[in-house]
Write a structure and sequence with these properties.
The chain is an alpha/beta fold and about 400 residues long. It has 17 helices and eight strands. It is globular. The protein binds 5,6-dihydroxy-NADP and zinc ion.
Length: about 400
């Protein structure tokens, strides 16, 4: 196991009606002027935003509002937020929604004290040294941003979608997680979120670091539990216990618990980000296309972890041929995503019948380097093969 530092100070407040505590929690973390950030209207329609505002008012906390964050959030909304922040001078940010809303708030938090362009943090070595604190009211289990130090934004001019990872600065102070709030999610978003959280676990699982049994077993156990609970949620979206299990999984999948002390692999995500940047597809659905293709490539080039996954999670008997077992595991995962979650598993099903692989591949390597490092070394020829597998 490698050396590591784990700093994860978020206070998670989980369960029914926990959103009524938001005013008190903001106060606890020093807020007196809050900027609310939310998406395209789901929190307005559900009445959640009104409840949050009432709770802030009860604690005499002033607030302003930045609505209209779109999925695959964009730089222009961050600039709008930074302008609003300049005039309102918030001391705390409160995203109410999912990963897109939270990531936009984190970008504003990081950009607030910076003299330059916040986008520098996403594509140059510049890093924030100070950020506004934030808390979260989560409405979709998926990106795991409520417990992560990450934010992912798309540049509307260049179509570059990239992340900033600053766990010491950008992990939320608190995250309110009421599984009941996720019952209004359409099946597509629920399923895409589940695909995303499994991908977050697998990006950590695919590692060449030896002797990381705790991380491996946590990952395998979580994927098994998620698959079981996912089928319950798809069958009955009002199943509170299944919703609760899925919601907490989304956080653990991405707050680094199962990646400590090991090399990670974020290349499937980098490849998917090119797809969602260019075609504006739902991130988790894009991953349902990329991940089976990535596992297939790994089955040919570095099968040991994929074979272990196949044996321990997908019920493949150990044949003694790691590559063959890995192929079978990848196939079973793909079938499960398609048959049980009703997700697309190739470009055509994703709504991209003629993907511009050349364009995405060129952008990918321009952003991430000639050879992507991780579980496998991937040059442009290798990632092209994986994108081609995504057509199958
Ligand atoms: O915008 P509204 O109207 O709120 O609707 C949203 C949105 O259309 C809807 N929704 C959310 N909660 C709902 C609901 N609809 C009904 N009932 C509810 N309770 O769901 C849609 C998707 O929301 P979004 O915030 O985009 O979802 P998600 O959490 O999947 O976030 C995706 C973004 O996060 C990035 C992705 O790339 C993508 O841009 N990621 C962020 C990460 C991080 N910060 O750590 C890591 C991830 O790997 C990921 O890359
Ligand atoms: Zn993701």
């Amino acid at each position: 196991m490698n050396n590591f530092t784990f700093y994860s100070p978020t206070e998670f407040v989980f369960g029914r009606e926990t959103e009524t505590q938001v005013g008190l929690l903001c106060k606890k973390y020093g807020a007196s002027r809050v900027m609310l950030v939310y998406g395209g209207g789901s929190v307005v329609r559900s009445g959640l935003l009104d409840k949050v505002k009432q709770s802030l008012t009860e604690q005499d906390i002033a607030f302003c509002e930045l609505g209209g964050v779109q999925p695959n959030p964009i730089d222009t909304k961050v600039y709008e937020g930074l302008e609003l922040a300049k005039s309102f001078a918030p001391d705390f940010l409160l995203p109410v929604g999912g990963g897109s809303t939270i990531d936009t708030a984190k970008a504003i938090a990081a950009g607030y004290y910076y003299e330059g362009d916040f986008w520098d943090f996403y594509v140059t070595p510049a890093r924030p040294t100070k950020a506004l604190p934030l808390g979260v009211v989560l409405t979709i289990p998926a990106a795991g941003s409520e417990g992560s130090g990450n934010t992912v934004i798309t540049n509307t001019k260049t179509h570059v979608k990239n992340g900033l990872r600053m766990p010491m600065l950008l992990r939320p102070k608190f995250a309110i997680m009421n599984p009941e709030l996720t019952m209004t999610l359409p099946e597509w978003q629920t399923a895409s979120g589940i695909s995303d959280m499994i991908a977050h676990i697998l990006e950590r699982y695919l590692s060449n670091t030896p002797d990381v049994q705790i991380g491996d077993r946590l990952a395998e156990g979580m994927i098994l539990a998620i698959m079981e609970e996912a089928e319950k949620v798809i069958a009955n979206p009002k199943d509170y216990e299944a919703r609760a299990n899925i919601m907490w999984s989304g956080t653990i999948a991405h707050n680094d618990t199962c990646s400590l002390g090991r090399q990670e692999d974020w290349n499937s995500h980098a490849m998917e980000h090119e797809i969602s940047a260019e075609y504006d597809v739902t991130h988790g659905a894009g991953l349902a296309v990329v991940f089976p293709a990535f596992l297939k490539y790994a089955a040919n080039h570095n099968p040991h972890k994929v074979a272990q996954l196949a044996h321990r999670v997908f019920g493949v008997a150990d044949s003694g041929d790691a590559s063959a077992d890995a192929h079978e595991g990848a196939k079973r995962f793909k079938t499960w995503l398609h048959d049980k979650l009703h997700l697309p598993v190739n470009f055509a099903q994703l709504g991209v019948p003629e993907p511009n692989i050349e364009l995405m591949n060129t952008r990918l390597h321009k952003l991430k380097g000639e050879v992507l490092q991780g579980y496998m070394q991937l040059d442009a020829d290798a990632t092209k093969v994986i994108y081609e597998y995504c057509k199958e």
